[in-house]
Please model this.
Amino acid sequence: MKKIFLLAITLFILTACSSASANITGEWKLVSYGDAANPTPAIPNVDTFIKFDSNSQISGNVGCNGFGGNYKISGNKITFGSIMSTMMYCEETSPQEQAVLGVFSDGVKLPVQMNGNTLTITSADGSSVVTLTRK
Model:
């Protein structure tokens, strides 16, 4: 009887933990982006940030343009709504901005992995990643 009770408690805890949503609320700094097998480090000395607020709004700057939109977390998946961005062209940071914002696909559920203060968002096809660290 004790073994069945312990097994039931263990299964309950595992189920509860696996369905918990990642708490990504806060401000994050870009660490790397691009090819999942060989990500590109973020451009040094460029103050990048992505802020996820508690009202499911995202905002930030990953080069020279500001952006914003909305998001939804469900378990270990994130879904972005339409992301709007200013349209300045900055030669040095443009590839970084395009790669990062390109991963934030409208309406596609993307895998999210948290490991301590590191957040990794993977593109729908698994080929690209955006890695962030808490500011």
